[in-house]
Design a protein that fits this description.
The complex is a heterodimer of chains A (299) and B (336). With 299 residues, chain A is mainly alpha-helical. Chain A contains 13 helices and no strands. Chain B has 336 residues and is α/β, with parallel strands linked by helices. In chain B, a hairpin with a 2-residue loop joins strand 9 and strand 10. The chains are: A mainly alpha (299), B alpha/beta (336).
Chain lengths: 299, 336
């Protein structure tokens, strides 16, 4: 068979998908300006987190009594806190904590929810019924209350904070994924896979899960923002990350009450960082939904 | 009900499949937490038939008569309510796990809709290769790719298609992929569930010819489920007619088309249009009166009696048995 043979399928594919890159980026900016702004915020956070040690001017945990509560100036761009630590440095390192907890919780929780949700839909019947009622119990608690309860049981170590934020995500993701998987369950390729004698695990992971990716990815990005917010809330309440680890919620707690009037920058900057991060992830998630939803997509 | 014993050739040969008194009831439930069964949809209500190796049996009937459910029970995609399905001498509802895997290799399916029967996230090569990998028929990747290419060309597709996704192919091409997937495990028996109904006529003819060639080459046995009588007549040696979960007539293909005996079969054959427009316009159509009854609450006695032209008062009492009125021709109607 010659390589130069013109295949109708190839031509169609190229017409549909091989637009020049510049043109595709251009149309993306026109269609999803907010999504790109979200992506930008997320990217800046990721860069800050990865290169924190190189780009931050000072040591995030080194207290200095000579430099307590200095307002923003040339040396300390965003000022210093009540222990004389540079705010900018702590914000940059705080991105590490926020992203680490945010991504870990969102990924672990969403993947567990994906498998459980698809599995619940696949097995159906009694399994589905019992499973969904258990999920209802978890959903009955607000996110932060459930997280607080788990932390107060297991203590405030990093791992129990991650567990506390992860567990409430599982039912939220499972519920959304299940509704899509229920429809996929009835599509003949799942029957074909069963007729081939594939194992339940293989059908769930290889045949059903990849086909619920669109709602899953949206849930995932929203979960990252939500996890960052929950971590900040827990830290603010003193039930999350502990001093001297730089974390935005902790910085907010340290600054908000005592220094709100005398040194407002101590509370403002971590607040701005938290808001921007959550905002960024949510905008990105929204844009992702529009791009992935075939009903909204124009070729 | 007795099992139909003779085959198209009239000689007894090896039975590959025997279905005895198969029933598939789907319960209708009410209640949220505690579910009560309020009724049954009697999709298949006591059918028996058998098939010999290398034979093609056509299963015809209108929508909702239980053809597809019968196929799904044989594939064990649904667990039947009662009745036995014996494949190669083994009752498939009592198979052990490893025997079940063996059974899965031997019995395959081709679905109606080529657009939804292929996983859109998998490449064609993976779709066809996966069964061979899972069943450890060919474990080596390059060897498997070679076999996939072989199967693709066997089904009239270029081996280059193995790197494609299903959405990049046309309906006819996809259906060929469905055929290739069914062949991947070297099956003995294939359930063709409306395998050509979703294709346009010219593609239909190609796929039917392909199925015929494959049958002859690999001595395959097909259960060909369809509502298209012309396709059935072309492809099948024997035909079984179903109505509302019951089998009303079984006969050799030519015998059934030339000499239908059950009033429902007659009506069904009468509904087939004649290709000559003059003849078609002038002939008298006998349309079956009334609607197909609900399978939740089927009529008593013979399920066809409310719509039957030759019904007598006794028809609403006893359920008619499938009786052999001529050699190889079985009819479930005492009045026929």
């Amino acid at each position: 068979m010659s390589v130069t043979e013109i295949n109708p399928g190839t031509v169609i594919e190229e017409l549909a998908e091989r637009k020049p890159l510049s043109e595709r980026i251009g149309s993306l900016i026109r269609k999803q300006p907010l999504g790109l702004a979200g992506l930008l915020v997320v990217s800046i956070m990721v860069v800050c987190a990865i290169f924190a040690e190189y780009i931050s001017p000072y040591d995030p945990e080194l207290a200095s009594f000579e430099h307590m509560l200095i307002p923003p100036n040339g040396d300390f761009l965003l000022g210093t806190d009540q222990f004389g630590r540079d705010m900018l440095t702590r914000l940059i390192f705080g991105a590490q904590t926020a992203l680490f907890i945010g991504f870990t919780c969102a990924f672990v929780g969403s993947f567990a929810g994906l498998v459980l949700g698809v599995g619940s839909a696949y097995f159906g019947g009694k399994v589905d019924l019992i499973f969904q009622r258990v999920m209802d119990v978890f959903m009955a608690f607000p996110l932060i209350i459930l997280a607080l309860a788990i932390v107060s049981i297991f203590g405030t170590s990093m791992s129990s904070v991650i567990t506390a934020i992860t567990i409430p995500f599982i039912p939220r993701c499972a519920r959304v994924v299940r509704s899509s998987a229920l429809a996929i369950r009835e599509i003949p390729y799942v029957d074909a896979a069963r007729a081939c004698g594939f194992s339940h695990i293989r059908i769930i992971l290889r045949h059903m899960a990849p086909n619920v990716m669109a709602p899953f990815l949206i849930i995932l990005t929203a979960a990252v923002g939500q996890a960052i917010l929950t971590e900040a809330s827990l830290s603010y309440l003193g039930m999350g990350v502990q001093e001297p680890t730089p974390a935005w919620g902790l910085m907010l707690q340290g600054g908000a009450e005592e220094y709100a009037e005398s040194a407002p920058w101590v509370a403002i900057w971590p607040g701005v960082a938290i808001s921007l991060a959550v905002f960024g992830f949510n905008l990105f998630g929204d844009a992702l939904r529009d791009v992935l939803d075939p009903r909204l997509r124009t070729r | 009900m007795s099992v139909v014993e003779t085959t198209g050739a009239g000689t007894p040969v090896e039975k590959i499949l025997e279905v005895t008194d198969l029933r598939m009831y789907f319960p209708i439930t009410e209640g949220i937490m505690i579910q009560r069964k309020v009724a049954d949809v009697k999709a298949v209500d006591g059918i028996s038939f058998s098939m010999s190796r290398g034979e093609t049996l056509g299963l015809v009937g209108e929508s909702g008569c239980g053809k597809t459910t019968t196929g799904r029970c044989i594939l064990q995609l649904e667990k039947q309510t009662s009745g036995d399905i014996v494949f190669n001498g083994q009752n498939i509802s009592t198979l052990s796990r490893s025997d079940m895997l063996q059974f899965r290799q031997k019995v395959q399916v081709i679905f109606q809709d080529p657009y939804s029967s292929l996983n859109p996230r998998m490449k064609i090569g993976d779709i066809i290769g996966e069964p061979m990998k899972v069943h450890k028929i060919i474990e080596d990747k390059t060897e498997r790719d070679r076999r996939v290419a072989e199967l693709l060309s066997l089904c009239g597709l270029s081996p280059q298609f193995s790197d494609r996704y299903p959405h990049e192919m046309s309906g006819g091409q996809r259906q060929r992929v469905g055929v290739a997937r069914a062949l991947a495990l070297n099956p003995e028996f294939i359930v063709c569930d409306e395998a050509v109904s979703a294709l346009d006529v010219s593609i239909q003819a190609q796929v039917i010819n392909l199925l015929e060639d494959l049958r002859d080459e690999f001595n395959l046995t097909y259960l060909f489920i369809s509502h298209d009588l012309s396709v059935i007549r072309h492809l099948c040696q024997r035909v079984a007619v179903m109505y509302l979960g019951h089998m009303v007539e079984v006969a050799d293909c030519d015998e059934l088309f030339e000499n239908p005996m059950h009033p429902y079969t007659k009506a069904l054959l009468d509904a087939v249009p004649i290709a000559d427009p003059v003849l078609e316009a002038s002939r008298e159509h006998k349309i079956v009166k009334g609607e197909i009854p609900s399978p939740i609450n089927p009529p008593s006695g013979c399920v066809f009696h409310p719509r039957c032209e030759i019904a007598v008062p006794g028809c609403s009492q006893a359920i008619p048995k499938l009786l052999e009125v001529k050699p190889g021709h079985w009819v479930a109607c005492p009045e026929a």
